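Dear colleague,

As promised, here are the two records you asked about, laid out in our usual form so they can be pasted straight into your sheet.

NAME FIELD: protein one
SEQUENCE, THEN STRUCTURE:
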Amino acid sequence: MHIINSKKVYEEIPYYQTIIRKKLEKGTAEYTHLMLKATELYKGTLGKSGLPLIVEFDGVDKTLHKTEDVTKKIISLL
């Protein structure tokens, strides 16, 4: 099972970086537009990774399942 830290991935997405840099407020048109673009890129990158199952890093009991953190791999595909 592959795990990912989505926050770390978003922090590397230029659209998200713009939101942070400009200190845009959630709910504004520009924030919403940029988050949609960031999420589209994130989901597209997950899709092109070829990995069949990716779970948020805190969404699985690592004592019960063998996991591999693919956060860096996904960032490299952005």
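NAME FIELD: protein two
SEQUENCE, THEN STRUCTURE:
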Amino acid sequence: MNYDTTPRKMKIHNISSLTKFEGGIPAGYDLVVYERGQSAEDGLVLYGFDEAEIWGDDFKCPQYAFLLQGEE
């Protein structure tokens, strides 16, 4: 079998301020937290905004984003 192993560019929407953000996680996207200055693609997937309080403390300077893999 032939599989396409070409890395796909992930669509990333950074969240400038989690405390000021209003709304939910867009359909088809993951909410991720990662170290500011690093790649969002290497971030930790959160299953809800409530987990931001739990996992955000594990980062010196956390950044949040919505990440879409594949086609929109």
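A couple of things worth noting about protein two: Residues 11-68 form one domain. The radius of gyration is 13 Å.

Best,
R.
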